[in-house]
Amino acid sequence: MKRRKGQNFLVDPDVIEHIAEYACLTKSDRVLEIGSGTGNLTKVLAERAGFVFAIEVDPKLATELQGKFDNVQVIRGNALKVEFPDYNKVVSNLPYQISSKITYRLLTKPFEVAVLMYQREFAQRMLTNPGDAAYGRLAMLMGHFCFVEIVEMVSRWAFYPAPKAESSLLKLKPRKNRPDVDTVRFMRLVEKLFANRRKKVKKVLSALGVSAQKLAGIDPSLLERRPEELWPDEAASLVDFIPTSASQ
User: Fold this and answer.
1) E-assigned strand segments in the chain
2) What DSSP character marks residue 97?
3) For the chain, what percent of residues have pLDDT higher than 70?
4) Are residues 65 and 131 in the same domain?
5) Is 135 helix (H, G, I), strand (E, B) or coil?
6) How far is CA 146 from CA 123, 205, 220, in A?
7) What's the domain range around 227?
């Protein structure tokens, strides 16, 4: 078994079974798997779910997986670029080199639950709070969109070849009571905030074209803080003050 496209293939059967169990799969579920690799996880998903969409960028691995399971559709291509199918759950041993970008993409799509494997340090960054040194764009977006919990620590020896870092398995459930703001505009605001994380929020908003009159309508305690000190819902409260042209 050769490593392809930077992937570390999950080979521990117990961990694979646990992943499927955390997703609580039934035959009514349509599962999206990103980075199906050699199909070890795909096989278990196919046994428990009604249908599996397996995205794989490596042509040889995609060909090897094609036709192995009656209820699996192999989607060949880059998960950051291909059109996503209609699914209700996401269950994946994510390729670690695209962890950030694919997570941001998944957050913009509806799902009931996601069970995802990340490098441990990356996973821990998702769970940081304002004021923590590691708190940033990732944690703010996760806190806005989802409830996140680490359900299992995974040894690097569960993979082949073994990566240098340990891993964590996360379960994500969408927040149903999150502030009702435009998803794309919120994500762009968060990007701008953390591109200027050491500046006060007031200066960042001014640079985005928020007028002095509109600034006067914002809680002064928010304006005097820095982006890294804002809770996700506090940041969301700022979206509607920003001119539409500034968030495009």
Assistant:
1) 9-10, 30-34, 51-56, 72-76, 89-93, 113-119, 146-154, 159-160, 167-174
2) G
3) 96
4) yes
5) coil
6) 14, 25, 27
7) 183-243
- The structural domain count of the chain equals 2
- DSSP-derived pairing of the beta strands 159-160 and 9-10: antiparallel
**Residues 170, 236 share a domain:** no
Range 157-174 average pLDDT:
96
Mean pLDDT, to the nearest integer, of 179-205? 95
245 pLDDT band, cuts 50/70/90, is confident
Residues 120 and 159 in one domain: yes
Asked if the structure places residue 120 within a domain, the reply is yes
Whole-model pTM over 0.70? yes
CATH classification at residue 85: 3.40.50.150
Q: What is the CATH number of the domain that holds 213?
A: 1.10.8.100
Q: Do residues 146 and 202 share a domain? A: no
Residues 141 and 215 both lie in one domain = no
The SS3 call for residue 163 is coil
Determine the Cα–Cα distance for residues 239 and 232; give it in Å rounded to an integer: 11
Task: Please state, rounded to an integer, the average pLDDT across all residues of the chain.
Answer: 94
Q: Which residues pair with 54 in a beta bridge?
A: 33, 74
Q: Which whole number is the average pLDDT over 151-176?
A: 96
Rounded to whole angstroms, how far apart are CA atoms 102 and 57?
13
**In angstroms, how far is CA 75 from the centroid of its own chain?**
19
